[in-house]
Amino acid sequence: MASIEVNGKQFEVDEEGYLANLNEWEPAVGEAMAAAEDQVLTDEHWDIINFLREYYEEYQIAPAVRVLTKAVGKRLGKEKGNSKYLYELFPYGPGKQACKYAGLPKPTGCV
Amino acid sequence: MADYEIPETHEFPIIPSIMEGAMAHSIPFVAGEEFQSDMGFPSPEEPGQLIDGWKEKFLELMEEKLSKYRSLQVFMDICVKCGACTDKCHYFIGTADPKNMPVARQDLLRKVYRRYFTFAGKYFPKLVGAVDLTEEVIKDMYSYYHQCSECRRCAVFCPFGIDTAEVTMAARDMLAMIGMGQKYSNQIIPKVHKIGNNLGLPEPALVDTLEGLEEEVEDDIEVKVRFPLDEKGAEILLVTPSADFFAEPHIDGLIGYAKVFHATGVTWTLSSKASEAANFGLFIGNYEHMRQISLRIRDAAKELGVKRIIFGECGHAWRVAYNHLNTLAGPWDFLDQNYPIPQHILEFTKDALDRNLLNIDKSENDHMTLTFHDSCNIARASRIGETPGSQFTTPRQVIQAVCNNYHDMAADTTHDATFCCGGGGGLLTDDLMELRLKGAQPRMESLKNVISDHGVTHMAAICAICKSQFTKVLPYYGMTMDQIVSVHQLVSNAIILEGQGGDEAEDSDEAA
């Protein structure tokens, strides 16, 4: 299995660069994954990433898009509670890109 | 957006000059040991290799399939190389790779068939284009049988009716059995067996998602529209793709189904056990997995005591349900025999519209001009209603009953000549993005033309894969991801429920 090196530590990732072991995740891993895709993670990104991790911990799945936009709307204001805002932050799609940085598995299926 | 060369679109279709090997590098991830074993498939000792005795195994499976499926035997024998199919495949048109001509793709298997199963091929292989089964041949098959979305457009034009999809399914199944299953499909199917859906959305998350939707709809229109889950004694079980819970614009379609049920006054429920309409067993050509997935629907229907089963907007799910549900999971003698078993949500909605049970304000969709993308599996493998061609008329009648502005795309790209979205048949995966983008070219071309010639603004679809695929590829072709909508999203916009208010909420939504 492939791996990435962050601060001298090795982290196993799958073929698509998603972290193999959810529990190994640390913020620096998210930073490194983002940097590799020319993304700089701001506080706005971290709000989303942290929510994804909390939701995953409770439900063992990333939140559905409406669950996410609703939560974002509640936390950060209604004008941000839509998928347009999320796509501005994560152009490749909040479902996939943000999950990756959060160390979560990629959502599968017809999505 | 990743950097790929996007094919040009034109006013009229142009068949590309061939480029040998243009897509030979397109190889989706092979399923690792964990996914192969979850499926009950063998894994090689070394990743990237084939299992010991792969050649004998492959030929043994082929012999078995040829005797079991008479159609496959006929398809192997009957092709006369007339060339009618050559320019009909969206992947050929979009990639120019000659191996994506359906006849050439079929020939990857056919030339092996000739070598081992025909007299001429056994003794004079060179004369009849027969080749030995080598690792090279297997790798070619793995690549190109994952450049077919099993959409069957080529079969419509084949004078013999050779069904490439069936050849692809057989080849994929044999490849999986020698250690070359595809990761995307093999990762998904076990989630259905274990959790109930492709996403792996567990029951508590489903409950949370549906509660959120109830709140959202109530905030929007001030009517409590229910999204019931596992409610025993409901009349109807709705089986819908799990993407309807998860993604946009799918979820707006789900809201539409719920509003239609609400307005007609029927009782209905979703099931946490059968929380998936999709059946990827079809894509990988594996009957047993297809059966196991279908049996979950039977179990759920029995446990919940429903009288009817209705399928949501999912293309290949409807192909499986319409054609095979009785064989796979019947008999359905415990359901109400007065209704179609199973029934498509569009047939239900159309019937409700015909009987004037829905209060519709078409002007709610006046900000859009629609066109309709016929999903391949529905167009070429089913009906939505009782009459021939109802799979084409029913969706259009529903759209036109809820929208004032509608225009069809070019006739040679719709109805049974429709083009695949480019992501069907188990190819909706990021590792095939280049193929998906290029394969979308014919549909993007006809869409662009209807946009520029007739002012179309949005395309409606009735398949979860189509919706996700278009969301992804539209921006590459200069359009926006929100130009793809669910048909029941349009219904949802136009339907006025009793007691509905919330104009203010609606207005502020539009402003946002």
Instruction: Give the oligomer, counting copies of the same chain as homo and different chains as hetero.
Output: heterodimer
Order of helical and strand elements of chain B: HHHHHHHHHHHEHHEHEHEHEHHHHEHEHH
CATH T-level fold name of chain A:
Arc Repressor Mutant, subunit A
Q: How big a fraction of the residues of chain A is strand? A: 5-15%
> Which CATH architecture of chain A would you pick?
Orthogonal Bundle
* Spatial separation of the terminal alpha carbons of chain B: 25 Å
Largest sheet report of chain A = 2 strands, antiparallel
Structural class of chain B: mainly alpha
Point out poorly predicted stretches of chain B.
504-512
Can you summarize this structure?
The complex is a heterodimer of chains A (111) and B (512). With 111 residues, chain A is mainly alpha-helical.
What does this structure look like?
- The complex is a heterodimer of chains A (111) and B (512).
- Chain A has 111 residues and is mainly α.
- Helix content of chain A is 49%, strand content 7%.
- Chain A has a single domain, classed as Arc Repressor Mutant, subunit A (Orthogonal Bundle).
- The longest helix of chain A is centred in the middle third of the chain and has 17 residues, at 43-59.
- Chain A is globular, with a radius of gyration of 14 Å.
- Chain A starts with a strand and ends in a 10-residue tail after the last helix.
- The model of chain A has no long low-confidence stretch (mean pLDDT 93).
- Helix content of chain B is 48%, strand content 4%.
- Chain B has helices at residues 33-38, 54-68, 70-78, 90-95, 102-117, 119-123, 135-144, 153-157, 164-177, 183-194, 203-221, 243-246, 250-264, 287-304, 315-329, 345-354, 376-379, 390-402, 433-439, 441-454, 464-473, 487-494, 503-511, and strands spanning 236-239, 268-269, 308-311, 343-344, 370-372, 458-461, 484-486.
- In chain B, helix 2 runs antiparallel to helix 9, helix 14 crosses helix 15 (315-329) and helix 16 (345-354) crosses helix 18.
- Chain B starts with 32 loop residues before the first helix and ends with a helix.
- Classes of the chains: A mainly alpha (111), B mainly alpha (512).
- The interface between A and B is medium-sized, with 27 and 40 residues.
